[in-house]
Amino acid sequence: MSADVHGLATTLEGAVRDRRAIPKLTDGADLDVASAYAVQREVIERRTRRGERLAGVKMGFTSRAKMVQMGVDDVIWGLLTDAMHAESSVDVSELIHPRVEPEIVYLIGREVRSVAEAESCVAGVAVGYEVLDSRYEDFKFTLPDVIADNASAARFGFGGWHAPRDLSNAGLLMEIDGRPVQTGSSAAILGDPARSLRAAARLALSAGMRLEPGWVVLAGAATAAVPLPAGAHVRITGAGLGSVEVTT
Ligand code: OOG
């Protein structure tokens, strides 16, 4: 691992602080997937040292629509902190060029000690949203770039919790200002978002972590992401899961 993990973490933090997109890291540095995860971890550890708490994980590139949109073809993860949890409004002036996408969200009720028990550790499911804000110019990146950038994670929210259930084919609708902008099915998430949950458990275990009680797992978008302007009212509805609304 020859990448300057600390220097690259500082570069990414600078983009967040200045709300200014930067050229992708691989333009100037040799970055493989392992070093990219080390950069991601460093940025998150700096946040937790400043008092933020880990709140869960997000999965990325779990759907064909997203892989095609972003030109990437591997499942990745990012780490969420409580400061990214947005409840019902997002101040887009704090972000660079935000996009929003619908999500299936799992609530972890019990520590996940193995991939096999992941589903039995779920306490609830909800429909949610994720606001992505790539720190790179034009949302253009390679796989190591987006991993280092915590899978573009910026803000997230979710609706009311429902009892765990089969989500292998739940319809999802995203509306902005009352206009439908994306429709899809949870089946687009690796065929069943439960697979994404198991992948999250596997990635956590291989990183020496465990999904913890109270954490959320964002299973990944079922549709492409759309630009999120100021003054917007977004509603995401999931069949049988109610809806979640967010204003900007
Ligand atoms: C990376 C994040 C991808 C998803 O749901 O696939 C992601 C990006 O597109 O900027 O969160």
UniProtKB/TrEMBL annotation:
Organism: Actinomadura sediminis
Keywords: Lyase
Keyword hit for Lyase: yes
Keyword Repeat: no
InterPro entries linked to this entry: Fumarylacetoacetase-like_C, Fumarylacetoacetase_C_sf, Hydratase-Decarb/MhpD_sf
Cross-referenced Gene3D superfamilies: Fumarylacetoacetase-like, C-terminal domain (3.90.850.10)
Protein name listed in UniProt: 2-keto-4-pentenoate hydratase
Fumarylacetoacetase-like C-terminal domain residues: 98-246
